[in-house]
User: What shape does this take?
Amino acid sequence: MEAAAHMTQKTFTVTDPESGRSSALPVRSGTIGPAGLDISALHKDLGVFTYDPGYATTAAVESRITYIDGDAGVLLHRGYPIEQLAEHSTFMEVAYLLLIGELPTAKQLEEFIGNIRYHTMINEWLLRFFNGFHANAHPMAMVSGVVASMAAFYHDTMDIHNPRHREIFAHRIIAKLPTIAAAAHKHSLGQPFIYPQNSLDYASNLLNMMFAVPCEQYRLDPVASKALDLLFVLHADHEQNASTSTVRLAGSTGANPYAAISAGVSALWGPAHGGANEAVLVMLEQIGSVDNIPKYLAMAKDKSSHFRLMGFGHRVYKNFDPRAKIIREMCHKVLAALGRSDNPLFELALRLEEIALKDEYFLARKLYPNVDFYSGVIYSAIGIPRSMFTVMFAIARTVGWVANWQEMIADPGMRIGRPRQLYTGATRREYLDIRKRV
Ligand code: ACO
Assistant: This one.
């Protein structure tokens, strides 16, 4: 069960070898996982900061939402293992769990789904924003821009210190992200926008908005809806990753929450983060055949090349990413159910994984497939175009972003996020008149 972090009896003492002054740093322990050294007094006591590029060993927040043990390949949402949620739950239920902290009763879930459905439409004025984008605009650019624009529309949720406003914001953004995503897709195709159908479940509604056209009946494939819902469960949250930290940092200034979520969408887009799912497919198509795998592995190992094996490696997982394991199994099932078992890209991905995991370079660095390695194969199989892969990730991760934003804003001890730096630039010098510069 949940419990707040507490100070243990243990302290670490750091001593300045020159002055002999010391700082006693208490240890904070959570419920599970490594404890954290509380360094907040370090600068006051010794006049030094800590230096930790990429925040590789720095916990900046206390959170009760998600727990990862990267060495053991464990991922828990509010204590529940991802494997159990993937098997038994749905995206809407996981969304409730992440936001509220407990699994819902049947009545609570029904009410929650009703609240989300109530908000699926977007303001018609907002829809017109899409006309300002070129047809070839990347959908992530459109989604990020339109989500930020929501800050200019929904003034009834502007008071971030009002819990009811925060709740409406949460329902609204989770409900509208699929509508915005589908509108971006339709804009790229030059097709008319399809309005949400509130009789459909979350994933089916998205598929309908993406693929239906006014002139024909669209038949939803339940295999595709179920696969998408499961992918959403697997992507819903992942503790303090780059995009979630971005949402927290932007939100910590008191910024409008839609603007903070838009910042998260932008951070997710990068190929080192959520953009990797699109990059994996590009890479697999580039590799083309099993015979070319050694050439590309050699490039991935070559430090003078910018090429990396996309979908491989993770800051936290130094063992298999549990989500990748589930998605790989899912690929087999979904492709079989869709009658596409002989999918050449999936075959290539399986061989690439097999060969890479026997390679000393990947073994020594503990580089394993991550969540993005196989997800694109499923997205492709259900007809989602490559440029929309990261948008799918953004739809799911919005729940995690909102849960983290809510947790932060509700915390009475919240402070603006403001990292420090190790300055290595010029020391003080005097301004030189432009005529004297050479
Ligand atoms: N291919 C080749 N080499 C790699 C890869 C890779 N995919 N990933 C890491 N390495 C190497 C690095 O070059 C480094 O080697 P070195 O020790 O000889 O210098 C070592 O492994 C450690 O890598 P770092 O970059 O220090 O690891 P970091 O934790 O900073 O980065 C990241 C993690 C960004 C995920 C990285 O593994 C990567 O770029 N992977 C490919 C992109 C990707 O799949 N991103 C999705 C991540 S999951 C997600 O965000 C949803």
